[in-house]
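Bench notes, afternoon.
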Amino acid sequence: DISRLKSKAFEHLRPTLKSSVLVSAMGASCCAEEVPPSSKTVGMLHIEEERISKAFGDSIIKEAPAEADLFQQMAGTWRRKADDLKLGVLNSAGRMTWEPSFKAKPTTITKMDDGKVQMLLDEKLYIGEVTIDPTTVTWDDGECWRKADS
């Protein structure tokens, strides 16, 4: 049924919610400490679930077919395009390991059905548009990342 499918789509966000509490903005974050989901995080889950429900309405949600292929192409070292700052390394499973200077725990990036990617960082959901050749991600906050070896 539709509510089960919406819930399944939302489950892609849930694993990132128990990662780290981060301070500052994307690309300049530092880790406070690993914490279990708080009531604030749980409340955020409900807000995000409502947002997803409104966005999808009664449409059928399908699994994104080529997530593994996308992350195979995206795997490697990433830099912020504006100043060439090294951000970290993304593995072929979509897990970003940040540069030690950020003092941040790894972050999971997932592919959305529309081909965009998303990540939860500092309790904020970021959505990015991926281009290949050269490989870049332009995030919804305006920040642009480039794959260092493309």
